[in-house]
Amino acid sequence: MARTYTKETCPLHGSKYCALLNMENCRTCTVNCETEEKAAQVRADLDAICEKMPEDGIADLFAGDRCRLCKGEARPKKWYALADLGHREPKRRKAAILGIAREPHAGTVLPVQIACCDACRRKYLTLEYVSPVMGTAFAAFGLILMSVRSVREPIAAVAAVLPFLVFAAITALGIAGGTIIKKTLRSKYEKEMYLDIMGVDKLNALADRGWFELYRNKDMSRLVFSKTPIKQGIFTAAPEKNDESAENEENRAEKDETV
Ligand SMILES: [Zn+2]
User: Fold this and answer.
1) Based on the domain organization, do 108 and 215 belong to the same domain?
2) By residue range, what is the domain housing residue 87?
3) How much distance in Å is there from the Cα of 220 to the middle of ligand 1?
4) 252 in a domain, yes or no?
5) Are 233 and 46 in contact (CB under 8 A)?
């Protein structure tokens, strides 16, 4: 459904910039355009971002009904995988302590959303949690084991520090096991899905234009998942679907045929 913007006094009202920002409405708009000067800055920033984007935008990353993280045949979209991209430009020098100018890590931040299926989300979360969960589970097991008197006392009789060492060894075993399982799963999953989102078709075009993942895990992308798409913000607008009009036309055509 098309959104309506009521604040006609806004310098961006009715402009392509307003459309680009895709705010839910004027009340929830987060962009400061109180003065013409601020509005000019917003226009300049948006122009700068658009220059670094593919001509056809990035809506096909999330607007379709199929997962974009699947390699091979894509499963139905059930989730949105969210990540933040950064770009070094525009380089704004901020006066820091003692007046020494510093360049921030990223001049532009762009949240992106990627259509994702149940299976890809499950694989991603498995990789993310297998090590800490295994480590914690083994540590808990070691703790319980060493709290059993009939187990602890004979061990402690050998050396007072030994129960603690056994506990530490069990925990280390869990962490090592988790790491090995993660590695094995990772090489399997890597063939089935994009663990590095910058490998996804549209995002590699963005990488060529200087975009990078702002917060990345060591060996894979850092993603959070949402059932619903991002409501507002730049490049969050899905292309206007002409399904209705197409359907109407079809109906009309059918009617014409029956007449
Ligand atoms: Zn998938």
Assistant:
1) yes
2) 52-94+102-238
3) 15
4) no
5) no
